[in-house]
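Tokens for chain A. Residues wanted.
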């Protein structure tokens, strides 16, 4: 077997340093009774818990694929200078300071703290919850500031590598085309993390970052402040302020498991409406029941440990059939560790 190249070693060193950093926070938060304190041993699960080896092997497979894509030039590696460093230490402090509040919310099953008459006038009811028992729900500036750190801690440093798998079908779709003439919409852009990867690779692609949370859109503006050709929209994915057939690519990363079943259908319909004929829809979200052998216990535990009111129905959601109702043609479904990338074409 050939020795791994220096760049491969550098990639692995960086990837596993991230795992150590975020898995360390995962363990620390658990000790503090925080977000990940819920243990599979605490509950009766129908499915058998995977072995540590199974989990580590699946994680290694994700990194192997991520590296293979980077090495083959499918997309750029995770080395943009505006990430990590001192800000990681700052975020770590903020994350840890928030852990007791999350622990308290979970103990008291308190998930309606952001529900108020004022908020009801502006947002749908299903949106006004403390998903994952997070402080401020989707509404506060603090929530937006620590969100990326929380997600990486939940996934022990693998979230970005999973998100990057959604770049693979985008790269294939854009091959040989002039990116300056094309539009990509990221629905539920959160803090703009995924769009920053898109822009690392296709800086002149026209993009729209859409999210219902004013503070998450503000965070996305900040994340993407050095990038050009981006519009921002504070809007509901159920009724997007975008013209019919205006988008070449639509992405939705970690959105659908947070939506009630009916709303999922409405949003897929909206995505089909704004896509041009020949356009691409890339959905990245949690694996579902039966997607990865031995992992059903992980998805079974998740909604018991966190406030995820629509996750169980998501596990059984027929994504392919939903796309077909909206006249989207199913193309592929590819698991990537704890997530999967599903693609559709608009005929
Ligand atoms: C789990 S986060 C995913 C964020 C981001 N895509 C990522 O990769 O981390 C879910 C996001 O969906 C947004 N969201 C939820 N319901 C929405 C809706 N109906 N319309 C627009 N955005 C919505 C939330 O504000 C939040 O930013």
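Reply:
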């Amino acid at each position: 077997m050939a020795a791994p190249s220096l760049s491969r070693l550098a990639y692995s060193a960086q990837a596993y340093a991230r795992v150590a950093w975020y898995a360390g926070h995962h363990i620390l938060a658990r000790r503090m009774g925080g977000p990940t304190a819920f243990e599979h041993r605490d509950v009766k699960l129908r499915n058998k818990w995977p072995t540590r080896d199974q989990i580590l092997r699946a994680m290694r497979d994700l990194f192997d694929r991520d590296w293979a894509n980077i090495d083959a030039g499918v997309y750029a590696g995770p080395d943009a200078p505006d990430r990590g460093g001192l800000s990681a230490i700052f975020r770590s402090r903020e994350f840890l300071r928030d852990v007791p509040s999350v622990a308290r919310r979970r103990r008291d099953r308190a998930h309606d703290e952001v529900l108020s008459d004022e908020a009801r006038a502006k947002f749908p009811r299903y949106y006004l919850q403390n998903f994952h028992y997070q402080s401020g729900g989707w509404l506060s500036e603090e929530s937006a500031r620590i969100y990326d750190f929380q997600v990486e801690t939940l996934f022990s440093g693998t979230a970005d590598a999973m998100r990057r798998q959604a770049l693979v079908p985008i790269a294939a779709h854009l091959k040989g085309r002039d990116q300056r003439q094309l539009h990509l919409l990221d629905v539920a852009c959160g803090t703009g993390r995924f769009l920053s990867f898109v822009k690392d690779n296709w800086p002149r692609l026209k993009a729209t970052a859409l999210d219902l949370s004013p503070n998450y859109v503000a965070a996305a503006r900040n994340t993407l402040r050095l990038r050009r050709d981006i519009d921002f929209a504070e809007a509901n994915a159920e009724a997007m302020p975008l013209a019919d057939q205006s988008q070449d690519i639509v992405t939705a990363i970690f959105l659908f498991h947070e939506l009630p079943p009916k709303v999922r259908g409405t949003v897929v319909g909206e995505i089909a409406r704004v896509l041009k004929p020949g356009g691409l829809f890339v959905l990245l979200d949690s694996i579902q029941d039966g997607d990865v052998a031995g992992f059903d216990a992980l998805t079974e535990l998740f909604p018991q440990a966190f406030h995820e009111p629509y996750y169980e129905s998501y596990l059984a959601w027929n994504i392919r059939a939903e796309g077909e109702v909206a006249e989207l043609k199913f193309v592929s479904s590819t698991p990537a560790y704890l997530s999967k990338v599903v693609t559709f074409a608009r005929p």
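The CA atoms of residues 333 and 342 lie 4 Å apart. The pocket of S-adenosylmethionine is lined by residues 127, 138, 151, 163, 188-190, 193-194, 211-213, 216, 236-238, 253-255, 258 (CB under 6 Å).
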